[in-house]
Design brief:
This protein is mostly helical. Helix content is 78%, strand content 0%.
């Protein structure tokens, strides 16, 4: 019995606890586990939004973006060593996703309450303002501890991401592939092109390394992080097509579809922002 407990404990430490404590990145076991948890959370949050009478639409997604920027910049606190042990563990993936989710949910509830009292102001506009303020505070704190080292990195990443997105859009428009001319889908693809660009510049030119299992394997195999561009396209174009062609058109299905797209956007934009901020500050 003791031997069995030791084996289970060792397994948990090796694949879950140690990667968090040491910020070692991902392995195949915890990657699959976090993916399953994410899937369960999607359905739970959609139900929660329904109870709060909030529609998962394009306006809501736009209002979420400042919170993605805020969460990503807060993650850099740990990279910069601003937050010390044990509180820095709250800023390591995947724990930080729960922390940011809780803060975002509280802000959403407050924004909903304020909008009921403040005529003419929508929940989304108040919510977005709160996220923007949080992001500004995070950047201000980083600037008080760190100096900007590589400002042009921001230009390169935004430029490459925009060029890659425009290229895909023009090709899709030329061949009549409507999935990639839809504004929300194009925004999702743009977020992942930014992520690909940040990885390409960071790994190939600035000495950073990739922590995720599949990207890391492909980068080692090809010798360049440029492989992130075709990898992203190969994964997310089929995913977006499946999402757009396999959901019903009733209100509940539309909400679920839009929220799934929001999650996909966050999975691209969040690491793209964190990577970019780190490199700009030389962390």
């Amino acid at each position: 019995m003791t031997s069995y407990i030791d084996k289970v404990s060792g397994f948990i430490n090796t694949y879950y606890i140690d990667p968090i404590l040491q910020d070692e990145g991902y392995n195949i076991v915890n990657t699959l586990t976090w993916a399953i948890i994410l899937g369960l959370c999607i359905f739970a949050v959609v139900r929660l939004l329904k109870k709060l009478d909030i529609q998962a639409n394009n306006r809501f997604i736009a209002a979420i973006v400042p919170f993605v920027l805020a969460g990503s910049s807060m993650r850099v606190y740990e990279d910069a060593g601003i937050i010390q042990y044990p509180f820095n563990l709250l800023l390591i993936t995947p724990i930080i996703y729960f922390v940011v989710f809780f803060i975002t949910l509280v802000c959403l509830i407050i924004a909903k309450a304020i909008s009921k009292k403040w005529a003419g102001k929508s929940t989304e506009s108040i919510f977005a303002s709160m996220g923007a303020l949080w992001f500004i505070c995070n950047i201000s704190l980083l600037l008080s501890f760190q100096r900007i080292v590589l400002p042009m990195v921001l230009v390169y990443i935004l430029g490459l991401g925009a060029l890659a997105t425009l290229f895909v859009y023009f090709v899709a428009n030329k061949v009549g592939f409507g999935v990639l001319t839809d504004k929300l889908n194009l925004s999702i693809l743009g977020a992942h092109m930014l992520d690909a660009s940040s990885t390409f510049i960071g790994v190939d030119f600035l000495g950073y390394y990739e922590k995720h299992v599949l990207p890391s394997y492909l980068i080692d195999l090809t010798g360049t992080a440029f492989v992130m561009y075709p990898l992203k396209l190969a994964i997310f174009i089929p995913v977006l097509y499946i999402i757009d062609t396999n959901f019903d058109e009733d209100a509940e299905s539309r909400n679920l579809r839009t929220f799934v797209k929001l999650v996909i956007l966050v999975l691209g934009l969040s690491p793209a922002c964190r990577n970019t901020i780190r490199m700009v500050f030389g962390i």
